[in-house]
Each structure stands twice: as structure tokens, then as C-alpha cells.
């Protein structure tokens, strides 16, 4: 059973909201063989313009599912997020099954159950594969995060990879949806 840990910011999590989230997230269990200690971390935020944002993160062994949605109706946002998570699961399942078939055609993936769509097709048949169309190589220069943001803006990109001068590790700066910048640091 997937247990939901629900946290609300600027909103009281009512029993109705809680039961709707638990019901919808619980439907994801059908994709997995064994989910004994799986937790879904659900954050609900509301803003002054009455729009809400729902984020659901489900960390699992070898896979982290995450989706977020902004909507005026929190119930609709939860429905949209569960649809996104189902698509993520199907894509991941397709990718893994393809790798297993290439290595050993007899191997079955034990993490996922075979789930049939209403039309009888298995879900992995409906998703397109991921195709890498270009590969770039470049040398990472040591710099600080502010210089990396300037480089990113100069190139017109939404992210930039660099060697962090302070941590001596590889880091990534990126532009967030709200127009601000963030840094991802690696270990």
C-alpha cells in the first residue's frame, strides 16, 4: 500500500482532500508487484489568487516519481498529477523492458505488473521511445554559480553545467519557472 504523507501550506487538509488524494494515488499500486514501504509525499499550496499547486513525490528503490500541477481546483490538479505519474511509469517500464529484451528476451521485469488498457493493448506499446538526436562534448571550466548564470544567459540556454570553483564538483544552474535561478550540486 502506498501511504500518503500530506502537507498543506496556506490550506487546511480536510478529510475530503485527504481521501481523494489517497484514493487516486492508491490506484498507482496496480503498476507494481510489491510496494510495502512506499510513501507518497504530497505538498499542497494555495496562493493569494486562489490558485493551488499540488506536488507529489514517490521515492522508490531505483525510481523516483514526481509531478506537480497548478490549478484552480485542487481535486482536478490531483487527477492531472496521477495521469502524469502513470505516463512516467509507463515510459520507465517501456525503457526497462526494452533493455531487458535486448539483453535476454526471456527476462521479465519483476518491479512492474503487466497492466492492460481498456482496449487490450499493454501500456508500453502506446508510448514512443526516447531518441537522442544530438550529443555535445565540452570542457567544464571552473567558475562560481554567478558566472555560470551569466554564461547561461549569454548562450540563451535554460541550464548550464560547470565545475564549481568552491566545491570542486560538477554543478548545474538553471532558470526556474518563476524566472529565478537555482543550483544543483553533485557529490
Features:
globular; SHC Adaptor Protein; 4-stranded mixed beta sheet; 28% strand; translation regulation; 8 strands; cytoplasm; Double Stranded RNA Binding Domain; 187 residues; 2 domains; alpha/beta
Summarize the structure.
One of its GO terms (biological process) is negative regulation of translational elongation. InterPro entries: HPF/YfiA_ribosome-assoc, HPF_long/plastid, RHF-like, RHF/RaiA, Ribosom_S30AE_C, Ribosom_S30AE_C_sf. The chain has helices spanning about 15-25, 75-105, 145-155, and strands at about 5-10, 40-45, 50-60, 65-70, 140-145, 160-165, 170-175, 180-185.
Helical proportion, percent range: 25-40%
Structural class: alpha/beta
Output the strand order for the largest sheet: 1-2-3-4
Shape: globular
Helix count from the secondary structure assignment = 3
Amino acid at each position: 500500500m502506498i501511504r500518503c504523507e500530506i502537507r498543506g501550506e496556506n490550506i487546511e487538509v480536510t478529510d475530503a482532500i485527504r481521501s481523494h488524494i489517497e484514493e487516486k494515488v492508491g490506484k498507482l499500486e496496480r503498476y507494481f508487484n510489491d510496494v510495502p514501504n512506499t510513501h507518497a509525499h504530497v505538498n499542497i499550496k494555495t496562493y493569494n489568487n486562489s490558485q493551488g499547486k499540488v506536488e507529489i513525490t514517490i521515492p522508490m528503490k531505483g525510481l523516483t516519481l514526481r509531478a506537480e500541477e497548478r490549478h484552480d481546483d485542487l481535486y482536478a490538479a490531483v487527477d492531472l498529477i496521477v495521469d502524469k505519474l502513470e505516463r512516467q511509469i509507463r515510459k520507465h517500464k517501456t525503457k526497462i523492458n526494452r533493455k531487458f529484451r535486448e539483453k535476454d528476451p526471456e527476462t521479465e521485469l519483476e518491479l512492474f505488473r503487466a497492466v492492460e488498457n481498456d482496449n487490450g493493448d499493454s501500456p508500453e506499446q502506446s508510448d514512443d521511445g526516447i531518441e537522442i538526436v544530438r550529443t555535445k562534448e565540452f570542457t567544464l571550466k571552473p567558475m562560481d554559480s554567478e558566472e555560470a548564470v551569466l554564461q547561461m544567459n549569454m548562450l540563451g540556454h535554460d541550464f548550464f553545467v560547470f565545475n564549481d570553483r568552491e566545491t570542486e564538483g560538477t554543478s548545474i544552474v538553471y532558470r526556474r519557472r518563476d524566472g529565478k535561478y537555482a543550483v544543483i550540486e553533485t557529490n
